[in-house]
Amino acid sequence: METRHDRLYTKDHEWVLLEGSRAKIGITDYAQDSLGAVVFVELPTVGDSLAAGDVLGAVESVKAASEVYTPLSGTVIAVNEALEDAPESLNEQPYEQWLAELELSDQAELGQLLDEAAYQEFCAGEEH
Amino acid sequence: MKQTPLYDKHLESGGKIIDFGGWALPVQYQGILEEHEAVRTRAGLFDVSHMGELWLGGPDTLANLQRLVTNDLSKARDGQAVYSPMCMETGGIVDDLLLYRLAEQHWLLVVNAANTDKDEAWIRERLTGQAVLENRSAQTAQLALQGPAAERILQRLTPAALHEIRFYRFLPDVTVADIPVLVSRTGYTGEDGFELYFPADRATELWDRLLEAGRSDGLVPAGLGARDTLRFEAALPLYGQELGPDISPLEAGLDRFVKLEKDDFIGRAALREQQERGVPRRRVGLAMVGRGVPRSHYPVQCCDGQAAGIVTSGTFAPTVKQNLAMALLERPFAEPGRLVDVIIRGKPVPARVIDLPFYSRRKTT
Fold it and tell me: Among A76, B199, B203, B249, which residue is least crowded by beta carbons within 10 Å?
């Protein structure tokens, strides 16, 4: 499974890419592989105010619906609308395709996230 | 988890194993969409050895079966397969099964894996006269070879004249790759194809031979995921979703498999009453008008928030490329063209009631 060094991860297989006080959130290569072919993506609305743990959106494969939860609190400042017409790009480029960008309201929450090495170790444990 | 004799073959082919009602089976190999497409355009090979096989024999076999199932078996001939629900007195469904007539008083019953033990007990408790029931599920393997290339592929391994086997007919003892096989022209995908029953200890051999024989035609192993999307598009009901103890075959739209005019059978009084009064609910198709994928158990409401029913199965349908559902709707809402709302993650999303099935192949057999 591919990971990227430039971002942080959650145990729910999401990634977070920080740019100052803003963060883009997406799903990892491991997540897209477990889901299988993604056929539908539901995104939040710009302006939504979310608390860590709230539903950010949903990613649906042929098999099932999976909700995506935001690991960080903040306000949605952008959504990746291209996913609505091309949900399969989440399978093809999981680290290029983000779901939403948040203006963070609590930087301290970043301490809860995993770095690349910790995430890789977590994934290795998930295999068994 | 229980394993079929092909468990190691699934791992070898890259199958992603899941727990399917206590069975370790592959949900997919290379991908559900790819396998679905292969079955619609070429061919796919499914391991369905988890299905239950019960043999019933003895002079009172037919009389017993006629009382147990809703369809009429009296007109069936040797070599014919009959689909039928099996009901409780309430009209609710115990299971849906395929009944193969080997001889007038000798039948093979193929039942849903998760219901095998329940069905065996249900039937055994109700047998009268001389009829012997034998559960040979563990000794019997089943493969489904499905898709437009199925006949051409299977023909490479057998001298039997496969083109002479019509839809819902079978040959009980065909040599396929030197293995004795019951070859049935049936399936659960909406495509032409065969279901093959044979001794479990020959399973890996036949699996390999079929994949090899079909390679030039693009045959691929296919998992439970594609089996579900394929049967869904063809609107074939699944026990536990479209069918169950609280759903009657008339509600499920299986009217043509319920023969109220034959001699008495379990559930007849309830089903007759339901037919006379009109069924309270009906299985329909839903096509999403708004954005969203309907899923099993999502509520369906009418436009003012009134309960209209429930989604029984739903997905993105790969061949017709639409988000679709089968749903059980209260009769007033079950009219094609009617607009309803599917409640997806708490939000109403509009959908239109449409006719089933979503997909039918051009029939040549």
Answer: B199
Which CATH homologous superfamily contains domain B2-50+138-233?
Probable tRNA modification gtpase trme; domain 1 (3.30.1360.120)
Residue matched to tokens 């070599």:
B79
Query: CA–CA distance from B349 to each of A106, B320, B342 (Å)?
Result: 34, 20, 5
pLDDT tens, residue by residue, B112-126: 999 999 999 999 999
The residue ranges of every structural domain in chain B are: 2-50+138-233, 280-364
Question: Which residues in chain A are contacts of B315 at CB distance < 8 A?
Answer: 62-63
Q: Do B31 and A42 touch (CB under 8 A)?
A: no
Question: pLDDT band at residue A126, thresholds of 50, 70 and 90?
Answer: confident
Largest CA distance in chain B: 63
B20 has a chain A CB within 8 A of its CB: no
What is the Cβ-side half-sphere exposure of residue B79, based on CA atoms within 13 angstroms?
9
The predicted-structure confidence for B339-353, as pLDDT tens digits, reads as follows: 999 999 999 999 999
Nearest-by-CA chain A residue for B33: A37
What is this structure's pTM? 0.94
Closest by Cβ to A58, choosing from B28, B316, B345: B345
ipTM reported for the complex surpasses 0.95: no
3-state secondary structure of B289: coil
Residue range B280-364 forms a domain whose CATH class is mainly beta
A62 contacts B318? CB cut-off 8 A? yes
